[in-house]
Amino acid sequence: MKFIEMTSLVKGKGFQVFDSAEYIGGICAEGCSEYSRKQLDELTEFVKRPQIGAKGLVYMKSGADGFMKSSADKFYSQEDLAKWALAMNAKQETLC
Known about the structure:
Elements: E1 4-5, H1 7-10, H2 16-19, E2 25-26, E3 29-30, H3 37-47, E4 60-62, E5 68-70, H4 78-87, E6 94-95
Antiparallel strand pairs: 1-2, 3-6, 4-5, 4-6
C-alpha cells in the first residue's frame, strides 16, 4: 500500500491532531470496512511501530451502502469524507 498525501484535505476543520501536523498520509484497505474495534486498535499499534513511523491512526470506513463513518466524525462531514475517499480512490467496503 502506498501513502496518499491528505494534508490539504484534512487541515483547518478544528481537529487539532491534523491541524498541528506537518504531513497527513492515508492508505486504503479494501474489504476491511467491517473491522472490529479490537482490529482497529491492533492496526493502530502496528502503524506506530518504528518501521512504519506513524504517530496514530484516524480511520474512515466506507460501507456497502455508501455511508462513511470516521473516528473523527465530530470534525468532518459526509462531504469531507467523500473528498477523502475520492482522493484515495476508495471503493465501497473500504477502510481508509
